[in-house]
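Pasting two entries for a bug report.
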Amino acid sequence: MDVPTSRSADNGSSRGEDGWFGSRTRPPSGPGGGAPDARGPGAVPVSHASPDAVLVRRTMAELRSVADEVTSYFYALLFVRCPDLRALFPPAMDVQRDRLFRALLTAVEHADDTSALADHFGRLGRGHRKYGTRPEHYPAVGECLIGALRRFAASVWDAETEAAWVRAYTKISQVMIDAAAADELIAPAWWHAEIVSHELRTPDVAVLTVRPDRPYPFLAGQYAALETPWWPRIWRHYSFASAPRSDGLLTFHVKAISAGWVSRALVHRAGPGHVLRLGPPTGSMTVDPAADGGLVCVAGGTGIAPIRALVEDLAERAARRPVEVFYGARTQRDLYDIDTLLGLQRAHPWLEVRPVIDRDGRPQLPHALRTFGPWDAHEAYVSGPPAMIRSGVDALRGIGVPPERIRHDAVEELVTAGH
């Protein structure tokens, strides 16, 4: 089987989702990034699916029960055939294998949605620059992917199915290559960023301020990938905790997770003078500066970081839009940034900050959202650990906030959860 070679120019190595076809975020289901439906955001109903989409989905349905075996075989095949590519991947491949299968599911869900594929895989293409991914790598990856699918979906595999997968992979890889080539013209593959301040707010939460080695444009509410010198090729995502500053400094909030290599290094090992690598900014949880409606912001744990950035940005713009911030935590100690938020509240009468502490181990944020309001005319922003995002989105939708008005970056390894 011959996977066509893509046409675009060379790329370098930069920001984005983690790993080959590794997906950090799910494509938004609407302008507000609301929760996806059962088939995935923007999925085309099966009854209207193209013949290729039907064949691709049939293959994936066959593989769901053996997903780990498929992805393990794919990477083994790739590294045997192309051993030089192994250096582009992290040492531990367990998370990487999961990401590949999630990316395939995304391709299946959006097989007939050209704009969704372009958006999602365009982001991945730009992100893969930081790994050193080049256009000539894609055909080999495609060959090994098709080989793995053929082996484990033998009961439904035929020439038509293989042709459908070749067409799908060719389309996806070309989107990624073109996006990377375009990005190379306007942005570096990564930035070096020196830590200038490291403040331990709690035993497991640190506030890091870094100085990039060149100008770093971003928007409040976005996030970036960070790589530490102690865990090369392992990137984790963290939200910016302040609005863009005139001195160019960037701030991140990091919570050390027990099994989180990068987060533990950033909290307990990093300090002033250490240099990190920083991927480009991404994320859709931003505020439209031309809008004038109210905002309701729901944050848990270090999820307060992008919410604080949004509030600072509105203050600097003198927007004077009514903003309600619900800041949830398990204990009072976990409200590590409450003093900053309350200071902003005292300075800006349009801002209301509501700390919400769990009671008897039960989250109280959903109850607090239902108690205050109504929020149906507000734009909603939700940030925190994945479970909190799910409950926050459910609560907001349950009290009448339309899905298209809810913004979040819902991900498995969400930046604010901090692995």
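Entry 2 (this is the one that rendered wrong in the viewer):
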Amino acid sequence: MKNKINFGSIIVFYVVAVICRYAAVKTNLLSGIENPYLVILLRGAGPALGAFAAIKIFSLHNPMSLKGIYKNAIVPFAVYWILPAVLIAGVYYLTIGKFPILLMFTVLAYGLLEEIGWRGFLQEQLKSLPKFTSILIITVLWFAWHLNLEITPNNMIFLGIIFFGTWGIGKVYSSTGSLLAVAGVHSLNNFFRDGLHSTELTLIAILLLIWVGFIILYNKKFKTVANPA
């Protein structure tokens, strides 16, 4: 029997997420904050706050987890946070001569705040729907949350990226159950604030190959341990 969707909780989640996003990017509410890293985090906090509000108000059982299928959070933290932070910081050092470690982990934390909402909450709430329907709903809501609704070529490209991101990150979440893992994948594009060039695209491809391979191998090991012959 499929779980019944709690539409009230989804409405609360999304209203809170959009209000927080609007306050952060469309008003001067954050203009007095001098710490740029804190501003980055506050711009992405809405989905997490919305998820926690909905779970609290509706007393939902929501299986959010930082570690997911892994024995502890150290494994996904090392593979999906430390590894990209070190590699990408190395690329930054070669191009601009410094290690922006604080920026790396701020971007990862930003991704985590979003993923608590989009995957940890919304994907879980919609899991009884057909896969494509769930992806489509999350895509539309996630795209609209960014509050860039003009019909322009760039926004249509961004919508396409959101669609494939929803599918791909959703697959990672379904395979790992780890918010740390999906936060790392989510953050790949956000690391490169000055655009993607051949070096950045190569690094992204390498990280994706490492992560996909790790997920496949770990899931095989996990299933073998869970179901010994």
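Dev reply: Rendering is fixed now. As a check, the viewer should reflect this: The chain has one domain: 63-226.
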